[in-house]
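Board notes (copied after class):
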Amino acid sequence: MFLDLIFFTIPLFTITEITYCIECPSERMIKPCICVKDKIYPNVVNISCGGNENINLKRIFNELSINLEDGKKTFSSFYLNNTAISEITENVFKDITFYNVMMYLQLSV
């Protein structure tokens, strides 16, 4: 049996002076996820992963970890809205960090 989609937000920390990546990584590195630049604040970069097919998050974040310079590994937000992902494994994000993480998950009981 499946529960309805569950939404939760994890504010990772609050900081007054924000420093983070202001450029989107290449599509190749994060596909099928996408990079979304904020329309109001163009220096705010988010990574969004959606859909209903399984996404290899470990591969995506490993690519980012290897290919991004140290000062470019923090993004504003990570959005996960994927009904096929049932588990987030340990250390999946490697050394990639976010100020906010928002997930919509479908849990089975």
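Comment from the instructor: The chain has one domain: 6-105. The first strand starts at residue 6 and ends at 11.
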